[in-house]
Amino acid sequence: MSEAARAQLVLQARGLGKRYGELPVFSGISLDLRAGELVALLGESGCGKSTLLNCLAGLDSVEAGEVRLLDQPLSALPEPAQAALRRRALGFVFQAFHVLPQLSVADNVALPLLLLGRPDAARVQQLLEAVGLAGLGERAPRQLSGGQLQRVAIARALVHRPALVLADEPTGNLDPRHAAQVLELLRAQCRQEGAACLLVTHSERAAVSADRCLRMDAEGLQPWSPSPH
Ligand SMILES: Nc1ncnc2c1ncn2[C@@H]1O[C@H](COP(=O)(O)OP(=O)(O)OP(=O)(O)O)[C@@H](O)[C@H]1O
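Above are the sequence and the adenosine-5'-triphosphate SMILES. Below is the predicted complex in structure-token form.
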């Protein structure tokens, strides 16, 4: 691989294998994600997409293989170094949002910046506006709808300009207008900030807007082309 190609690599996974007890979830998964690309990950429910995202982030362990994030061996780093790299380089949109109920909407979005010691109220406001939540920053999460909470989670994942965004069905609870807005935001994050984004989706519409698509099945990850509309 050339130096230029290596420099573009944000994430490199090789030979990942995962099982829950006796149940194999996946094996032999390899994946490269480059700066600026939006990659859609599709596959049947239960095939292991969320588990793979967790393993790529180092939030779940693998039995085999290696994950390199920004050319550092994430899975081999001691936990404090792993946490520091994750905090700096990663934005994660969880399927279940994981918005903290005791913090306001704006404080939830601000959290990654605070953990990095870089508070930036203007950036928080910019993200709230970008996801269509301007004016709701002072609300408590319990006062928001499911779709609004999903957008809080997306704003929080992007606010610190991470090199890698892992997004687990980020448009699953959104109407078409907000789904398009969120996809546009993820794309802008890739284009403007040079981030890589791996987007788990069941939506062919979302897949069409990706730079490339991967389908996950028992054989591993295969390149896939969505049918044009
Ligand atoms: N903590 C766990 N313990 C045991 N089995 C688990 C655990 N988490 C997930 N699984 C199993 O691992 C497999 C993969 O689950 P996963 O959530 O990764 O699938 P998915 O492709 O993301 O599904 P969906 O599209 O429905 O979100 C499933 O068979 C699931 O039942």
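The mean pLDDT is 92.
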